[in-house]
Amino acid sequence: MKQYDIIVVGTGGANIVVDAAQKKGLKIAQIEKGKFGGTCLNRGCIPTKVMVTAANAVQEVEEFKKIGINVSEATMDWNTISKRVWHVIDENKDIFKYYDAFDNVDVYRGAASFVSDKVMKVHLNDGGESEEITAPIIILGTGGHSNIPNVPGLQEAGFLSSESLFGDKYPEKPYKSLAVLGAGPIGAEFSHVFASAGTDVTIIQHNVRLVPKEDEEVSAHLLENYRARGINVVLNQDTVEIRQENGLKVVVTKDRTTGEITETKVEEILVAAGIRPTVQELHLENTGITTWKNGWIKTNEFLETSVDGIYALGDVNGEPAFRHRANYEADIIAHNLFYATSEKDYRWARYDTLPKVTFSYPEIGSVGLTEAEAIKAGYNVGVGKNYYSATAKGYAMGINPGDVNDGFVKIVVDKDTNYILGMHVVGPQASILFQPYVNLMNSGVTPLTAINEDIASEQTKRLRAQGLTRNMDPRSVITVGETMSPHPSLIEVIMWTQVYYEHRW
Ligand SMILES: Cc1cc2nc3c(=O)[nH]c(=O)nc-3n(C[C@H](O)[C@H](O)[C@H](O)COP(=O)(O)OP(=O)(O)OC[C@H]3O[C@@H](n4cnc5c(N)ncnc54)[C@H](O)[C@@H]3O)c2cc1C
Ligand SMILES: NC(=O)c1ccc[n+]([C@@H]2O[C@H](COP(=O)([O-])OP(=O)(O)OC[C@H]3O[C@@H](n4cnc5c(N)ncnc54)[C@H](O)[C@@H]3O)[C@@H](O)[C@H]2O)c1
């Protein structure tokens, strides 16, 4: 059996832990069954944002005439956009070479599985099995994958997911028509991209709202904008069947309230119906690691699992799926394991200040509670709302009151304390506008707050009992570094100066 100091499974956010351990000179096993860099770099955030940026430009040109600029209609050059998408994906091949070059990192290309709590083996991609490996610390960052609903006829008709779209089903040209099943961030973003490319897009959404995790007013504004630009949106639907007819796919849906049947005939179907944890190959049943009902690995505020020394970060632990959240958690693990000066210097995760962005058009940025969530949580809720058109800059941008693209900012406040509970922006540059509130909400003397109290090593029990606090001084560059900022957004240009200042990992 080969002995390591640390085993890291998955090369998305978990690479931050590898970087830190590598610099400490530890003996590391790094295991990846797929493309290095994980979902975000290869089939998530980055390739989609290359597309979204082009789609945004198409929409912005539509608005130019309002500010006195005459240009002919903008169209997407799919070949150039596709080349840029694949360039950024192909670049990630070098990530493997980067880690493979370190003497203290053994890179295994294959699927890791547990033999017992601290013993793993790897089913190598080129066949065969590695010898058993062990380490006192194991990091699981195995991510998630598309949830494919069990709809009769879907498999037979064929469909896209974000994985196959950025894989063997990448379209050579935009589809003539596309049904998007699901309208969370993935559905909202791809609908914007393909509609901007000239595709006739129909969104078929199970929920009564687009982006239902956002504030209701934000969802309503997005719906109004999508419908105004010709995107067909059918809400509150159960997809009952997919048929094939004359070379097209017919999506048969049923209104969940009225029972009314709708048939949507399209060239292609894109499934964007949420994600599931990638735990299947891990064989968690050989360990004491506990999971939620759907397989998400249960973790606490230190990202510990129910087995001492095994941590899980990113999508696989079931907290909201964002790359900056995976990075934040990896950073916390690396800090506590390798850099904390004492237990008093330990960091822990909190998710109430997690920034979320949907790169739809209009863009959405939010942090904290929606108005409805704050009311449900029992706060004495106050709300403030301001429109882009109410500002001089909004006027300069050609945004007038009542315009469909007159976005807004909504703040949700606890009236008893005047504390900010949530901030929601929908409109131009939403992804950067709300960051000051993320920083403010994440600052102050912050008490350790337990997450999943039943997950507790002896050390965690002790730290919880001590009533640990961390001074998140808003003036400190360290606080900036310990505050999440949405990825990939321009605010990172500012936020990541902290990393260069600290020269950590
Ligand atoms: C289309 C799309 C767009 C998105 N856009 C954004 C965005 O704009 N902003 C944002 O913040 N988030 C976005 N996300 C979400 C973001 O991509 C994820 O939250 C993030 O990548 C999760 O990182 P992770 O480290 O948890 O896992 P991943 O990046 O998924 O990495 C997990 C890795 O583990 C490997 N693996 C799994 N099991 C094993 C095993 N047994 N052995 C070895 N290796 C294994 C996988 O191959 C994978 O490479 C998007 C997601 C999608 C699908
Ligand atoms: N900009 C970003 O940061 C970004 C972009 C894309 C994805 N992500 C992350 O990736 C994860 C997955 O995204 P997502 O949009 O798939 O997930 P999601 O869970 O947020 O949304 C899925 C939507 O699909 C709907 N749905 C479920 N089953 C359906 C069905 N059978 N037919 C029609 N609709 C159905 C649900 O009502 C839900 O609104 C999210 O957690 C998100 O945070 C982030």
CATH architecture of the largest domain: 3-Layer(bba) Sandwich
> How much helix, percentage-wise, in residues?
25-40%
How would you classify the helix and strand content by structural class? Answer: alpha/beta
Percentage of residues in DSSP E strands: 15-25%
Bound molecules: flavin-adenine dinucleotide, nicotinamide-adenine-dinucleotide
Average pLDDT, rounded to a whole number, is 97
CATH hierarchy class name of the largest domain: Alpha Beta
- The poorly predicted ranges are none
**What is the number of helical segments per DSSP (H or I, 4+ residues)?**
18
What is the domain total for the residues?
Answer: 3
Give the secondary structure arrangement, pairings included.
Elements: E1 2-3, E2 6-9, H1 15-23, E3 28-32, H2 38-43, H3 45-64, H4 78-91, H5 93-100, E4 105-116, E5 119-124, E6 133-134, E7 137-140, E8 144-146, H6 154-157, H7 162-165, E9 177-181, H8 185-196, E10 200-204, H9 216-228, E11 232-234, E12 237-245, E13 248-255, E14 261-266, E15 268-271, E16 275-277, E17 310-312, H10 323-339, E18 356-358, E19 364-368, H11 371-376, E20 381-387, H12 392-396, E21 408-414, E22 419-426, H13 430-433, H14 435-441, E23 444-447, H15 458-466, E24 469-472, H16 477-481, H17 491-495, H18 497-502
Bound molecules: flavin-adenine dinucleotide and nicotinamide-adenine-dinucleotide.
